[in-house]
Specification:
CATH class of the largest domain: Alpha Beta
Strand content: 15-25%
Number of domains: 2
CATH superfamily of the largest domain: Alanine racemase
Distance between the termini: 24 Å
Bound molecules: pyridoxal-5'-phosphate
Number of strands: 19
Structural class: alpha/beta
Radius of gyration: 23 Å
Length: 350
């Protein structure tokens, strides 16, 4: 019996990545964004490991995620819920000591009359997504009365350091912060942490970099948060001129040794990576040939020779198959590749 595709989650690398980001901004609190089940790697084990390493602030998106995390971590660490409260939820936030991120007037108005829990306020400085837009003196006075523990905004172009939008958003946020002089402020996600010394503010909010994604600047090393591998089911020799897979989309130009691997798009191996992704046997790169199917993927193992045989595990994300490189081959980002790993992929914590 063959085994399932497996994601081995390297908690020690995730902790090391958090420490690396923390060291970039001395004097700044480094939080951890563990929304979407820590980008698919498991919010509870990831948050527990980071808590032990000294991380005391966590971000999730939904109330349900916040409640689950609070139950797992106990009281003590701060948990902020990015989408903020829906009508009637304020007392649940208070009961679980979750910090509500308020992003609009309706939320702020409801919060003002609710049993007092802790809140943060999000401003929109260019995403046009979530957050208060424009700030009258009257708005500022009303929001100050809520005694926010954090004011924050989110950068649209932090992964493009030369983009003038970064400085523009920063200037707008600085102007907002003047109305909240004694309130800690936060602007940077992972990519924002790479923009330089001044971008730490009081608190940074990295997510993807903790899990091995992002494109760090020279001198910053981010380690893989996960290794995704799967087992070879069989190996066969195909002749030049034969085709491979559904749609017969790829014709072999020479005699080729093929291996059929037990992983497919139902596991989150993106079909857009058909004919483009690389799989690794040890350090030998084996190109994916033809279309990725639901449960199976065919790779060219000609170069791997005797190393390619039934039962051998092949790496699709990890030390060799680098997350962002694989994502780029599939036309996407590390975020989507990680969060798309399905339930069928067995999670193992190392
Ligand atoms: C998801 C998210 C983050 C983390 O972003 P990364 O790019 O993964 O570091 C930070 N802040 C907000 C508001 C987010 O939604």
């Amino acid at each position: 019996m063959n085994s399932m595709p497996r994601a081995t989650i390297h908690l020690s690398n995730i902790v090391a990545n958090w420490l690396t980001l923390d060291a970039l901004h001395p004097g700044t609190t480094t939080a951890a964004v563990v929304k979407a089940d820590a980008y698919g790697l498991g919010a509870v084990p990831v948050a527990r490991a980071l808590l032990r390493a000294g991380c005391s602030t966590f971000f999730v998106v939904y109330l349900a995620e916040g409640l689950a995390l609070r139950k797992a971590l106990g009281l003590g660490p701060r948990i902020l819920v990015l989408n903020g409260p829906r009508p009637g939820e304020a007392s649940t936030y208070k009961g679980a000591q979750l910090t509500a991120v308020l992003s609009n007037r309706a939320q702020a108005a409801a919060w003002a009359t609710a049993p007092k829990g802790s809140c943060a306020i999000q401003f929109d400085t260019g995403m046009n997504r979530l957050g208060f837009r424009g700030l009258s003196a009257e708005d500022a006075a009303g929001l100050r009365k809520l005694q926010p523990v954090l004011v924050m905004t989110h950068l649209a172009c932090a992964d493009d350091p030369g983009n003038p939008m970064n400085a523009r958003q920063r200037a707008d946020f600085d102007a907002i912060c003047e109305s909240f002089a004694d309130v800690p402020a936060s602007i940077s996600n992972s990519a924002g942490c790479y923009l330089g010394r001044g971008w730490g503010y009081d608190l940074t909010r990295p997510g993807i970099a903790l899990y091995g994604g992002s494109v760090p600047p020279e001198g910053v090393t981010i380690r893989p948060g996960v290794t995704l591998d799967a087992e070879i089911l069989c190996v066969s020799d195909a002749k030049a001129g034969e085709t491979v897979g559904y749609g017969a989309t790829q014709t072999l130009t020479e005699d080729t040794r093929l291996a059929t691997v037990s992983i497919g798009y139902a596991d989150g191996l993106l079909r857009s990576g058909s004919g483009k992704l690389l799989a690794y046997i040890g350090d030998v790169a084996c190109p994916v040939v033809g279309r990725i199917s639901m449960d199976l993927t065919i790779i060219d193992v000609t170069k791997a020779q005797d190393k390619a045989k039934a039962g051998v595990r092949v790496e699709f994300i990890g030390e060799h198959a680098k997350l962002e490189d694989q994502a780029a081959r599939a036309g996407t980002l590390g975020y989507e590749l990680l969060t798309g790993l399905s339930n069928r992929v067995e999670r193992v914590y190392a």
